[in-house]
Amino acid sequence: MADAGRAVGHLMRVVMATRNEHKLREVREIVPGIEIVALDEALGEPPETGDSFEANALEKARYVFARTGLPTIADDSGLEVSALGWAPGVRSKRWTPEATDRANNERLVASLRGIENRRARYRCAMALVTSRGERTAEGTCWGTIALAPRGAGGFGYDPYFLPDAYPGRTMAEVTAEEKHRVSHRGQAFRALPELLDELG
Amino acid sequence: MADAGRAVGHLMRVVMATRNEHKLREVREIVPGIEIVALDEALGEPPETGDSFEANALEKARYVFARTGLPTIADDSGLEVSALGWAPGVRSKRWTPEATDRANNERLVASLRGIENRRARYRCAMALVTSRGERTAEGTCWGTIALAPRGAGGFGYDPYFLPDAYPGRTMAEVTAEEKHRVSHRGQAFRALPELLDELG
After folding, report:
1. In A156-175, which positions are buried (b, 16+ CB within 10 angstroms) versus exposed (e)?
2. pTM for the full model?
3. Which residues of A touch B48 (CB under 8 A)?
4. Nearest CA-CA distance, residue A72 and chain B, Å
5. Is there a contact between B43 and A45 if contact means CB atoms under 8 Å apart?
6. Most C-beta atoms within 10 A of its C-beta, which of B23, B82, B83, B93?
7. Chain A environment of B18 (Cβ under 8 Å)
8. What is the mean pLDDT of residues A58-64?
């Protein structure tokens, strides 16, 4: 293993071109000094360094298109709260160190304690990147932040988001079909067929 | 959805640059007329069209390296049986339409019914492809095909493969450590640290 140690100094990780879990496990056992990355992990996490939903969506779609050559879509989306200067915005997913829905929602509740203006909007940018060009589309969904969570549907801030379209119900209390009809993501992605046609 | 239908005529599938299962599900619900492929599926199945283990291993490693730019290893391996003209060889995994261990082993048993010469060998080629070049290594493990399966370890033809190194035990009856010490894959992949060093 001394040699493996030296090799690792130059080149820490290799991708193994297989979907066979048995082979992956055996090779990891045979050369434990080298980090073997599964094929599915090889693409890595697309970057997301922009300061707008649109920039981030484009960045993610370009990253994957460059590596696969396949028509790629990406979504960047988040919650903007008026009283918080439209935070958390593009940082909605990583607003807390834990980056979990639970921790993020706890921060949202704490940030709005005693604040009367609870207006907010969900925003979504979608990007499409193909060999024939790039397109983006956006969607916005207005609502109010609830005082307490309700509902088990959706994800993210949905249990606290009361969309204007469904008075008295949070986004986690409406059906998926109802959500998509009015949601930021529904609006943005319903443009996809036309955008594909344009680039066809 | 008429528009989606038309778009699909040109461009059936798009990759979605996300690992967020919620977003993936929602977008599939929002635009059901378009096939949304998860990021993890985007690399596709590497080709395997060669007639030698080495050619196939190189082909697979090159495919993934070209798409990820990351140092990539691949394994191509199989069972060669003397009395069968060294079949199934590179077709070991897809020797039957089912391409399952069970169906393949049934075919092996049937093919050797009444045949006295049950000598066989496992072979493995590994390929390493990086921006600095390509390397391959091979390993062979000799043995005999058992009349009945034994053991729950390993995979593939292991319950029927009696390696010369462990008289009386099948490759599925030895420990993983014992298997790797003598196996085709163990021999091939123990070259990896040195090959990484050479390309370092």
Report:
1. bbbbbbbbebbeeebbbbbe
2. 0.72
3. none
4. 4
5. no
6. B23
7. 60, 74-75
8. 93
Per-residue tens of pLDDT for chain B, all 200 residues: 334 334 444 456 788 888 888 988 999 999 988 888 888 787 777 888 999 999 999 999 999 898 888 889 999 999 999 999 999 999 999 999 999 999 999 999 999 999 999 999 999 999 999 999 999 999 999 999 999 999 999 999 999 999 999 999 999 999 999 999 999 999 999 999 899 989 87
Q: Shortest CA distance to A15 belongs to which of A48, A40, A50, A45? A: A40
Instruction: Classify B7-199 by CATH class.
Output: alpha beta
Does the CB of A181 have a partner CB in chain B at under 8 Å?
no
On whether the CB atoms of residues B115 and B46 are closer than 8 A, the answer is no
Find which of B8, B13, B19, B31 to mutate to test the A interface (most A CBs within 10 Å of its CB).
Answer: B31
Largest CA distance in chain A: 67
Task: Tell me the domain boundaries of chain A.
Answer: 7-199
CB contact under 8 A, A11 and B200: yes
- Each residue of A1-49: pLDDT tens digit? 334 334 444 456 788 888 788 988 999 999 988 888 888 787 777 888 9
Q: Using alpha carbons, list the distances in angstroms from residue B57 to A18, A183, B37, B169.
A: 10, 47, 26, 29
Question: Does any CB of chain B come closer than 8 Å to the CB of residue A154?
Answer: yes
Contact B45 A19 (CB under 8 A): yes
Spell out which residues of chain A touch residue B33, defining contact as CB-CB under 8 Å. Answer: 193
Average pLDDT for residues A152-160, to the nearest whole number?
97
Cα distances from B102 to residues B93, B105, B145, in angstroms, run: 11, 5, 15
CA nearest neighbour of A105 among A153, A145, A151: A145
CB B84: neighbour CB atoms within 10 A? 17
Contacting residues for B79 by C-beta, under 8 A, at least 6 apart: B88, B89, B92, B108, B120, B121, B122, B156, B157, B161
Question: Looking at residue B42, what DSSP letter applies?
Answer: T
Per-residue model confidence (pLDDT) at position A37: 85
Judge whether B84 is closer than 8 Å to chain A, CB to CB. no
- What number of C-beta contacts closer than 8 Å exist between A and B? 215
For residue A200, pLDDT beyond 80: no
